[in-house]
Q: What sequence folds into this?
C-alpha cells in the first residue's frame, strides 16, 4: 500500500449517521492532515494532528492518530448531505528545523451522504 | 486575504502546445508548492519553490515541465509540448517560511485538458 492510503475507497451513509474513514501510512511523520475535496473543486484543509498528539476535535470532526500502528481515523458525526465529498489524508514527513511540505496524499475516500 | 489564487481555472490545449499555469500565493507567503492530481488519484508533489529559488523539484517530470517563482509576480508552472497524459488538475499551495506543523493553503486548482 502507498503512503497515506485511505480506507474505504467509498462510503455511503444516511444523513445523521456517523462516518469513519481510515488512513494508513508507512514512514515516520511530523504531522498528518485531512482535507476535503468537493467534486471538481479545490482542497479544503480540515484538521492537522501532530505526531505527538493522539486525538483532536474540530466541530463535528474527530481525528485520532496511532503512530505505533501508523494509522489515523477521521470521524464525522451527525453527517449532512453537504458533507458529501472526497476526503484525503496527507502525511508530512517533516525534517529537522521545519516541515518540507512534501505532503503525500492518498487516493481518498468518496463519502456520499444521502438525504 | 484573498487566499491562494490560481488561474486559469480551466485550460484547454491541443497536443504540442504550451500550457502556463499561474499561482499567486497568499499575502505574506514566500513559499509555493505545486501538486498534480490525475483523475481518481490523490495529489502528487511536484515542486517546492521560494522566491527566485527552486528548493525541491524531485516530483517534476524531467522533460517539458518547469517552474519558477520570480521576485515579483506569480509562480508559473510551464508545460511545453503538452500530451494527453498531462491532462490533470494542478494545485498550488503556499505557506510562510516553513515552521513545524503548520497547514498548507491550497488554491482552487487549474484543470488542464489536452485535446
A:
Amino acid at each position: 500500500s502507498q503512503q497515506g492510503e485511505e480506507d474505504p475507497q467509498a462510503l455511503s451513509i444516511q444523513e445523521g449517521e456517523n462516518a469513519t474513514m481510515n488512513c494508513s501510512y508507512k514512514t515516520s511523520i511530523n504531522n498528518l492532515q485531512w482535507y476535503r475535496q468537493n467534486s471538481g473543486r479545490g482542497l479544503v484543509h480540515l484538521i492537522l494532528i501532530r505526531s505527538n498528539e493522539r486525538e483532536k476535535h474540530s466541530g463535528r470532526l474527530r481525528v485520532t492518530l496511532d503512530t505505533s500502528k501508523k494509522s489515523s481515523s477521521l470521524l464525522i458525526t451527525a453527517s449532512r448531505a453537504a458533507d458529501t465529498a472526497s476526503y484525503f489524508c496527507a502525511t508530512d514527513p517533516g525534517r529537522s528545523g521545519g516541515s518540507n511540505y512534501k505532503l503525500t496524499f492518498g487516493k481518498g475516500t468518496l463519502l456520499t451522504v444521502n438525504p | 486575504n484573498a487566499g491562494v489564487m490560481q488561474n486559469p481555472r480551466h485550460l484547454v490545449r491541443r497536443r504540442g502546445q504550451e500550457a502556463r499555469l499561474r499561482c499567486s500565493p497568499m499575502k505574506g507567503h514566500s513559499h509555493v508548492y505545486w501538486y498534480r492530481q490525475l483523475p481518481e488519484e490523490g495529489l502528487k508533489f511536484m515542486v517546492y519553490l521560494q522566491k527566485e529559488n527552486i528548493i525541491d523539484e524531485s516530483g517534476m517530470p524531467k522533460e517539458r515541465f518547469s517552474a519558477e517563482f520570480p521576485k515579483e509576480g506569480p509562480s508559473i508552472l510551464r508545460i511545453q509540448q503538452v500530451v494527453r497524459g498531462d491532462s490533470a488538475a494542478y494545485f498550488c499551495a503556499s505557506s510562510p517560511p516553513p515552521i513545524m506543523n503548520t497547514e498548507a493553503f491550497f488554491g482552487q486548482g487549474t484543470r488542464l485538458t489536452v485535446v
